[in-house]
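question for whoever is on the cluster today: can someone run the full assembly for these? three chains, 369 residues total. i dont have access anymore since they changed the login thing
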Amino acid sequence: MKELFGKLIMNYPYFAAAILFMIGALTVLTRSDLLKKLIGINIMESAIFLIFVAGGNIRGGVAPLLSKANSGAVYVNPLPSALMLTGIVVSVSVTAFALALIVRLHRAYGTIDLQRIAELRSEVAMDDSNHHT
Amino acid sequence: MKDFILKRMAAIILPFICVYGFYVILHGHVSPGGSFAGGIIVGLSLIAYSTIYGIAKGRAKLPEKVLVWTESYGTLWYGLMGMVGIVKGVPFLANKLAGVNLGNPGTLSSGGLISLIGFGVGIRVASTMVTLFFTMMEE
Amino acid sequence: MRIRSFLLLLLALPVIYGVLIAVAELPPYGMPDNPVHNQVSERYISDALDDTGVLNMVTAIVLDYRAYDTMFETIVLFTATLAVVITLKTRKGEGER
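^ ran it for u. tokens below:
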């Protein structure tokens, strides 16, 4: 047990990323408000970015910028940072499109609560079946 | 908004933020930052302008035509820069292989095609942020 | 209600334990001999200046080594803007749920 906690303290950025990811997953699973679900997805994305960038870090390393000041120093791995740049752009795109869809849903149903939307839909379906019979 | 102090302060600060964004875009290959970060700074300066002075004034500064133009031709510019490699007979988007002069490292003109591509990407990111903001705000 | 939350906690405990074990078994944070720092990033760090003439290695990777990636990234942005504008500006199908 002591060994486990020692390793956890050593890996504290990964630990923080795991906690962030669990917070985001819990938000997505338990909230029925669509905006809160979107916030949860964004928190999960931040956790992924954190774990990638932390994985590329080296203790005592310098930022991957070549200059005379840090010649001979150990450079931090530049690859995760470059990959996460792509991830951030995709995250921005996904967030923007989800917000547009939420605005559209609000225009159609007057609410952004998923439970309420499902109730409204079932009411409409029941009305339709009553008309046909 | 009708706040006098906010408007005057924005008039002083926002031009510098915009120019700083262009600085970050253009110096992406010699200093921290790059086209994505700089593009977002430029876009956010314009977004702050439209929130403070009203969406109509922001629209007047950046008409739909300009936004559509930068959106589409920014992407096309990237492809055109890639075509340099094809013209020279090497793979698409090649830089050193295409025989471009890489210049003296650390100066603004170094890096061959990289700074040109970065400028296009930065402009595109800025116009994307502004377009998204205008579209959402006009709801 | 209390019993239900207690049962949920019992269900959640194995998950939490699994996550803790997974985090503890990852390679130690910040060590230079981690498997992340393999020959790929070593090559980027040692050859970036010769290959691209750029001092910022992240820019060298994003705009030169992986330029295809960035090109389609800009196309992703373009498509997202297009989708948002189409979703919000069309008034077709309004009011019919």
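summary bc i know u wont read the tokens: The longest helix of chain A spans residues 78-109. Chain A touches chain C through 50 residues (CB under 8 Å).
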